[in-house]
Design goal:
elongated, nine-stranded mixed beta sheet, alpha+beta, 25% strand, 17 strands, 280 residues
Amino acid sequence: MSRSESNDGRRASGRQGGKFRKKSFSRGNAPIKKQNGGTPAPNSNLVRLNKYVANSGVCSRREADVLIAAGNVTVNGKPVTEMGYKVKLEDEVRFDGKLLNPVKKEYVLLNKPKGFTATGRSNISQRSAQSLVAKASKSELKPVGKIGKEATGLVLFTNDGEMSKRLNSPKNGLRKIFHIELEKPLRSADLKRIQEGLAVDGKVVKVQEVSFVDNAPKSQVGMEIYSSRNNIVQRIFDTLGYEVVKMDRVVYAGLTKKDLPRGHWRYLTEQEIANLRMIN
């Protein structure tokens, strides 16, 4: 930028050697500071009622306005229908009688690398999967379900304790697909045993589908399973005398690894969250 451009096209004074005279504030020319006029600072403890309801996971803000107008929301025991009404975080807000929690529910999907633990413990170590999603939220996110340290693939993290409990319930066996690599080829007879239902620790495990991976050695197997038993895939092959070398969870409860590189995470879409909420 030229000197003339940097000074809005004004001409330089010859007495100043081509440099512009700076304003002097020594003669009462100091700029007058604008006063606040006594405007009170916004109260960070107040939040709009529709946001409070939406953050509780009941619905969107727009839908919350409808529920509020219909008188379905109470604050400290009294129905509130006023649009834009603000509440304190310590107020008791209920929807259809159910107490709401204003902490925004967040849902994060991680493509876990090998060697990272995924547990519900609050301490975050350098090699925990939780450390990989630490920047995703200001609140503590915990993994839904368990996956072995040496396994890779999809792990869902959330601060929605109610959803986590529902997804972990044995009655809600979630669809999971694994790509498994064994230390030796899987015998066709053993593949058939898994298909027909294999007893693990005295209890038969139902597998929705298991087959060899196309165009790959017989040591690579794909498995679709709904069982919620801990480390069940590993235990199936342990029972048959095979060592699992690699195990990658490629699908979890309808969520996939598409466009999600190993070690990276993303937020769930509204549609994905809605689909998970339909599981009951």
